[in-house]
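Researcher: I'd like a candidate sequence for this fold, 473 residues long. If you have to choose between options at a position, lean toward the conservative one.
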């Protein structure tokens, strides 16, 4: 029985090395660094915030190493879905992939809210036409219209093919890098070391401040895992897939650390506390002119586009992979006969993204935090899968092979558990009841879809199809 609905269409291997690097790095460098950096510094102190990103980056690097080996060994669409299926079985694979789909959708929804928010900084007062108030936030008609329009444009770009999406990603990522280099270089020459104080925030406790930044690390660094999701569309030697993935993670760690440093050098504590967008304000201080601040806002818009674009790619491929193996309704496994894109999965993500602005800004904060938990759960599943496959299938060809695999694997497992612990009750950064409700509702809805799909399609097709594809590597 074939629940694929592809009509013989296949994903096309068209992504070159620069495409892949721009896809992953652009995904990790979204809008968050523009709007959140000031809060990071006030929460943890300048050095505390940098330390949080370095520590969080070390966790992501270790998890990234497990991804790199698995992606090179099993370069099929779906990434986490493929690895956890082979190592842990049908249901574990669904839980892992459905959890990270929540993370991807939370980012896509966040960008649909971030775009109208940043446009308001460029065109103050454009938001008119009060619709309703949700969680204290006034939702305006023109504000919603900008978010919906952006979502439709990004959906159209991904609909017509991954090659178009990759071209957009490269161009916009180059803009972000150029503006970032201008800012960091200028801050190192023009900034004052006196502005770095306090190095650590002692008001809430040093550990508490660092923890408040650490909980955002999964959300800010999610994106390197887009590479495994699109593995069947990457035209590179399998070993290079792992190398590019690791390079993207390392670049993102340096990016966030230097953005924090540059902002702290330029803005004293009092200015940070009064700034709604600290990084653009710091950029304006570097060059002592308003156009520089606006240029940084434009770089932030570029970050919205790169992150939005990448997670359309990653999320639609994850949904496609689940449907392709009978874990979601089969219509989500349809590929466009000409564009070779998972068309219905893209349309589903576009519809959900277009609804996001209707909920206002505060609801997106809840969704992002709940999505962060989904991301780290998927990291845990992949780390466990890495260890299991090393034990069960030592003969599996691994073009990118991790040194000291047991140490790396167990560290990745322990540190992923540590990240999960940051979301649990008792932690200073524990999820709120609303956020737990969102997470539970998502997982519950997924379980219903999974059980329906399993009754409809069974698991025999899934097992045969997955085995055939994996043996083809």
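Model: Candidate sequence:
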């Amino acid at each position: 029985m074939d629940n694929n609905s592809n009509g013989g269409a296949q994903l096309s291997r068209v992504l070159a090395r620069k495409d892949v690097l721009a896809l992953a790095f652009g995904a990790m460098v979204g809008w968050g660094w523009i709007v959140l950096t000031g809060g990071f510094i006030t929460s943890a102190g300048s050095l505390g915030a940098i330390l949080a990103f370095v520590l969080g980056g070390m966790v992501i690097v270790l998890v990234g190493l497990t991804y790199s080996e698995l992606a090179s060994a099993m370069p099929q669409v779906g990434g986490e879905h493929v690895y956890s299926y082979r190592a842990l079985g049908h249901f574990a694979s669904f839980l892992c992939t459905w959890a990270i789909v929540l993370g991807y959708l939370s980012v896509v929804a966040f960008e649909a809210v971030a775009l109208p928010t940043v446009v308001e900084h460029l065109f103050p007062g454009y938001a008119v036409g009060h619709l309703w108030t949700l969680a204290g936030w006034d939702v305006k008609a023109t504000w919603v219209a900008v978010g919906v329009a952006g979502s439709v444009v990004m959906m159209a770009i991904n609909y017509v093919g991954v090659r178009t999406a990759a071209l957009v990603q490269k161009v916009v990522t180059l803009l972000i890098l150029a503006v970032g280099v201008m800012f960091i270089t200028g801050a190192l020459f023009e900034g004052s070391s006196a502005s770095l104080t306090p190095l650590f925030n002692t008001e809430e406790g040093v550990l508490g401040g660092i923890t408040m930044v650490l909980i955002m690390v999964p959300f800010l660094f999610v994106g390197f895992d887009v590479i495994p999701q699109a593995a069947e569309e990457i035209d590179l030697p399998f070993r290079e897939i792992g190398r590019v993935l690791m390079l993207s993670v390392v670049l993102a760690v340096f990016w966030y650390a230097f953005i924090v440093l540059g902002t702290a050098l330029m803005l004293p504590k009092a200015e940070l506390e009064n700034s709604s967008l600290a990084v653009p304000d710091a950029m304006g201080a570097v060059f002592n002119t308003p156009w520089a601040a606006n240029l940084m806002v434009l770089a932030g818009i570029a970050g919205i586009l790169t992150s939005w674009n990448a997670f359309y790619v990653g999320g639609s491929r994850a949904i496609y992979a689940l449907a392709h193996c009978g874990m979601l309704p089969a219509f989500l496994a349809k590929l466009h006969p000409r564009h070779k894109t998972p068309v219905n999965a893209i349309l589903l993500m576009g519809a959900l993204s277009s609804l996001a602005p209707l909920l206002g800004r505060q609801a997106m904060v809840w969704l992002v935090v709940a999505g962060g938990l989904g991301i780290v759960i998927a990291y845990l599943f992949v780390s466990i899968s890495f260890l299991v496959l090393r034990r069960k299938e030592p003969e599996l060809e691994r073009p990118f092979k991790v040194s000291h695999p047991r140490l790396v694997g167990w560290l990745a497992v322990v540190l992923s558990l540590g990240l999960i612990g940051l979301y649990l009750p008792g932690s200073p950064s524990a999820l709120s009841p609303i956020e737990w409700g969102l997470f539970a509702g998502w997982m519950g809805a997924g379980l219903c879809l999974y059980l329906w799909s399993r009754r409809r399609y069974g698991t025999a097709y899934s097992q045969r199809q997955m085995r055939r594809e994996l043996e083809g590597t």
